[in-house]
């Protein structure tokens, strides 16, 4: 390429290299915010753009894909596998169940149980799977303890974030921040990779402060979006959509299979179950032959039902449907599943994913934020964070609970936990933590060795390794890491740091540190926590250097702010997990999270000053 193009003149005093990188950053922020593409696809697109624009970004093809071999990426991958190994043993679930027995129907004790399990556990097992494991435990605790799940699920997510700051391995953000700090260490002598317990003392302060807030203040700010003991039929307002009908003797449906009996092109109807005498037929029932006298449970609206009764020779029973009518004894259950990021169902419909056939389960309704969808379900495109009301047999619940495409907000009736492997799994995790803490091996080596140990000792089967990894997180990390390098190499970080450093003219150093904490928290709300760390740390380090402060203090402020995102369900994966099962609105997170964010901004900055100075 012509050097005159590469060495392009400055535009309004800003080098073209910086403008190009800023353009890529703004483009990435727009896609992360709008989610026009999945976050992992956006990250890969950014990687490609940086490579294509190499003359300005300075990112060669080898550097562009270096995120895949980055120590942070591989370590996060290994820690996700280790977390899955612990989950397979059932130790976290069992601990949660015992704490639930302690809590009873006392809300304060229930909160203490939720925080007491999720907080400490998240320090040693990645906090994202901890929340995924505990959502059904806490939901069942709420129903059994006559408490609204809305009072407990946001505290579950927040407590896991507090706990994630206890150690280096508590969250992927810590590992990525450590990697960025280590990379910058060549330029800034006070910077280095985090040790295993580098910031544990501050993490304990954050955990205790946040826990006290949730116990004595936070739960008062959370409304009961789901009333205690309300069944799913009421919660999803399904009264007008669930009906039991009996097949008349002269019905034209007699002799047809369920699949043939009702033309789903003409009628928006799902047959949920068929009862014949003492026998109940559940999914798969499409090939079951309809007989006179059969009782069919239908999901349909009243207008469609009226036409179906006339055309189909059916008589409505007329009784109001309830949860127990759709989950008779041990034969079937009514429960919710949440669609997480990275699920194979995102972007699909129930029809295109062949949901009923693949999972032997029927979807009765969708919940998307405040909206409840009960019509034309087969055509609804599934999105991240959607909550599906599902009816299925006990075996199907177990299969769904074991599938990484779902988070089942209900404990499976017959979970297949490997309880005999609990001591082995805990010993492996202890070794993974202890080896880097004692400076025997780095965390990358101990984590990979732990993965091998999990397989060798049969805690995990080889076929389960790939399903254990949240691949969207891995691709996100690999994609955003070169973006941070480009921001630093082009001089963009220096320019932004210089602009922020100007605030030192009217703010003390501690004030500038606090500004970075707040700014990082806000950025994390619109993009991911990992992306915010990559973008903010180089800027924070440059600003600290310009005002004569310790860059390490600023790195810690950014790291803690990115890992404690409380203002909405989008910024942090665990907040999204509890969004549907809690029946929350976006404003609920802000209502409880804004005071907490301000409180922890003061406590965290004060802790950094007290423990490390500025």
Q: What does this protein look like?
A:
It is a single chain. The chain contains 27 helices and ten strands. It is of the alpha+beta class and 614 residues long. It has three domains: 71-227 and 424-611, no CATH class; 240-319, Regulator of K+ conductance, C-terminal domain (Alpha-Beta Plaits), CATH 3.30.70; 336-353 and 364-373 and 381-408, no CATH class. The strands form two sheets. It has a five-stranded antiparallel beta sheet, with helices on one face. It has a five-stranded antiparallel beta sheet with strand order 8-7-9-6-10. Strand 2 (270-276) and strand 3 form a beta hairpin. The longest helix has 26 residues, at 586-611. Residues 1-9 have low confidence and may be disordered.
Descriptive keywords:
614 residues, alpha+beta, Alpha-Beta Plaits, five-stranded antiparallel beta sheet, 27 helices, 8% strand, elongated, disordered N terminus
Give a quick precis of the structure.
Helix content is 55%, strand content 8%.
Assembly type of the shown chains?
single chain
Number of helices: 27
> Largest beta sheet, briefly?
5 strands, antiparallel
Using only C-alpha atoms, the radius of gyration works out to 27 Å
Provide the domain count: 3
Basic shape: elongated
Share of helical residues: 40-55%
Query: Low-confidence spans: pLDDT under 50, at least 5 residues?
Result: 1-9
Q: SS-based structural class? A: alpha+beta
Overall residue-averaged pLDDT value: 84
Give the total of beta strands: 10
> Could you give the distance between the termini?
45 Å
Instruction: Tell me the strand order in the biggest sheet.
Output: 3-2-4-1-5
Query: Into which percentage range does the β-strand content fall?
Result: 5-15%
């Amino acid at each position: 390429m012509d050097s005159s193009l590469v060495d392009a003149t400055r535009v309004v005093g800003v080098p073209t290299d910086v403008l190009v990188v800023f353009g890529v950053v703004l483009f990435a922020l727009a896609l992360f915010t709008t989610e026009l593409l999945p976050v992992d696809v956006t990250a890969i697109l950014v990687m490609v753009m940086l490579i294509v624009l190499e003359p300005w970004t300075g990112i060669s093809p080898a550097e562009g894909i270096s995120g895949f071999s980055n120590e942070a990426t591989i370590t996060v991958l290994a820690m996700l596998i280790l977390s899955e190994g612990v989950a397979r043993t059932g130790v976290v679930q069992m601990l949660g169940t015992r704490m639930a027995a302690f809590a009873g129907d006392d809300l304060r004790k229930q909160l203490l149980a939720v925080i007491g399990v999720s907080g400490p556990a998240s320090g040693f097992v990645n906090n994202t799977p901890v929340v995924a494991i505990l959502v059904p435990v806490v939901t069942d605790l709420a129903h059994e303890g006559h408490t609204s799940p809305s009072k407990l699920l946001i505290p579950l997510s927040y407590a896991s974030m507090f706990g994630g700051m206890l150690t280096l391995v508590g969250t992927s953000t810590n590992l990525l921040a450590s990697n960025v700090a280590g990379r910058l260490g060549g330029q800034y002598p006070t910077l280095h990779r985090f040790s295993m317990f580098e910031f544990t003392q501050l993490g304990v302060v954050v955990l205790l402060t946040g826990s006290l807030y949730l116990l004595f203040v936070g739960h008062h700010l959370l409304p009961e979006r789901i009333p205690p003991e309300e069944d799913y039929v009421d919660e999803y307002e399904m009264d007008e959509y669930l009906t039991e009908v009996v097949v008349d003797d002269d019905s034209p449906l007699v002799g047809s299979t369920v699949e043939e009996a009702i033309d789903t092109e003409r009628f928006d109807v799902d047959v949920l179950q068929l009862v014949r005498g003492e026998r109940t037929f559940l999914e798969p029932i499409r090939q079951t032959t309809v007989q006179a006298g059969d009782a069919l449970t239908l999901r349909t609206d009243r207008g469609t039902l009226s036409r179906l009764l006339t055309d189909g020779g059916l008589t409505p029973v007329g009784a109001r449907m309830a949860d127990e009518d759709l989950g008779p004894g041990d034969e079937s259950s009514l429960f919710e599943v949440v669609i997480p990021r990275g699920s194979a169902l995102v972007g699909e419909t129930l029809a295109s994913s062949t949901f009923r056939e693949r999972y032997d389960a029927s979807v009765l309704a969708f919940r998307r934020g405040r909206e409840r969808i009960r019509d034309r379900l087969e055509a609804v495109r599934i999105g991240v964070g959607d909550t599906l009301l599902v009816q299925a047999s006990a075996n199907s619940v177990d299969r769904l609970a074991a599938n990484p495409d779902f988070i089942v907000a209900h404990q499976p009736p017959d979970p297949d936990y490997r309880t005999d492997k609990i001591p082995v799994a805990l010993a492996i995790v202890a070794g993974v933590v202890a080896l880097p803490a004692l400076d025997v091996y780095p965390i990358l080596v101990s984590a990979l060795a732990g993965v091998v140990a999990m397989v060798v000792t049969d805690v995990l089967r080889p076929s389960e390794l790939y399903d254990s990894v949240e691949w969207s997180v891995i691709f996100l990390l690999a994609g955003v890491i070169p973006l941070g390098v480009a921001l630093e190499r082009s001089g963009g970080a220096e320019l932004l740091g210089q602009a922020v450093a100007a605030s030192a003219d009217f703010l003390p150093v501690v004030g500038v540190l606090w500004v970075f904490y707040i700014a990082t928290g806000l950025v994390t709300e619109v993009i991911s926590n990992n992306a915010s760390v990559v973008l903010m740390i180089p800027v924070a380090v440059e600003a600290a250097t310009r005002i004569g402060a310790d860059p390490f203090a600023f790195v810690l402020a950014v790291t803690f702010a990115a890992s404690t995102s409380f203002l909405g369900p989008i910024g942090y994966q665990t907040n999204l997990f509890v969004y549907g099962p809690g029946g929350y609105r976006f404003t609920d997170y802000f209502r409880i999270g804004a005071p907490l964010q301000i409180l922890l901004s003061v406590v965290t900055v004060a802790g950094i000053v007290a423990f490390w100075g500025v």
